[in-house]
Write a structure and sequence with these properties.
The protein contains one helix and twelve strands; from the N terminus they run E-E-E-E-E-E-E-E-E-E-E-E-H. By secondary structure, the chain is mainly beta. The strands form three sheets. Strands 1-9-6-11-4 form a five-stranded antiparallel beta sheet, with no helix packed on it. Strands 8-7-10-5-12 form a five-stranded antiparallel beta sheet. It has a two-stranded antiparallel ribbon with strand order 2-3. The longest helix has 12 residues. The chain is globular, with a radius of gyration of 15 Å. The N and C termini lie close together (10 Å).
Length: 137
């Protein structure tokens, strides 16, 4: 059975007088070795990002500013998540179709388990559904 998305909680150190540091330095916070880090910003609220699945790449998505809504579809279950602060990250397993919606001014940080490869992406939802239906057999 494929993995399901889930929320991760990060540590926050500091106080209102001096500010905070949020960390994920402990290995159990991210369930893979991080190979790539990127951020998405300047996305108009009416634009839907994602709309793909990755064959092998696992991700953790974090809202650094604003909020991000994620529809995550494993082919067997659809879940919706709302990321509203940098203390929570969303683990997105391989073979999980995502649709991502950004608020005005949102900034998303993404940690991935692989380097970028165009061949890892599935951009056709019907093809994704066929692959995940086949996996269940």
């Amino acid at each position: 059975m494929p993995a399901n998305p889930f929320l991760l909680q990060f540590e926050r150190i500091g106080n209102p007088e001096t500010g905070y540091i949020t960390t994920m330095q402990y290995a159990e916070k991210v369930p893979f070795t991080i190979r790539r880090v990127f951020w998405t910003h300047g996305t108009p609220p009416e634009t839907v990002r994602g709309r793909h699945a990755n064959k092998a790449t696992e991700e953790v998505l974090i809202a650094l500013a604003g909020y991000i809504k994620v529809k995550a579809d494993t082919g067997h279950e659809v879940q919706e998540f709302e990321l509203t602060n940098s203390l929570t990250g969303l683990y997105i397993p391989a073979m999980c179709w995502t649709e991502i919606y950004f608020s005005e001014g949102a900034v998303a940080l993404c940690l991935t388990s692989t380097d970028y490869s165009a061949a890892d992406y599935i951009h056709d939802y019907e093809h994704f559904k066929k692959l995940t239906t086949h996996q269940a057999l």
